[in-house]
Design goal:
The protein is mostly helical and 71 residues long. The chain has helices spanning 2-13, 17-30, 43-53. 52% of the residues lie in helices and 0% in strands. Helix 2 crosses helix 3. It is globular.
């Protein structure tokens, strides 16, 4: 988690928010990262990518526009 947050800070400094969101979206879709582990600052953007680009609303909690029920 620390490494992910550090990477987020570094990419934010160079304008890579979109790139980080896509990275996390891919990791969630592949099952390598749980959506809950996505940094809070990126959750809505990651959710939008997963739902709109990948068409997998079942991976995203309802509060972020998906169909996954709260655990």
């Amino acid at each position: 988690k620390l490494l992910a947050n550090l990477a987020l800070v570094i990419l934010n400094l160079i304008g890579g928010n979109e790139m980080m969101a896509m990275l996390f979206a891919c990791r969630v879709v592949e099952g390598r990262t749980e959506f809950d582990a996505v940094p809070a600052k990126l959750k809505q953007q990651v959710a939008d990518i997963i739902v709109k680009d990948f068409g997998l609303p079942e991976l995203v909690p309802v509060e972020y526009g998906g169909t996954r029920a709260a655990a």
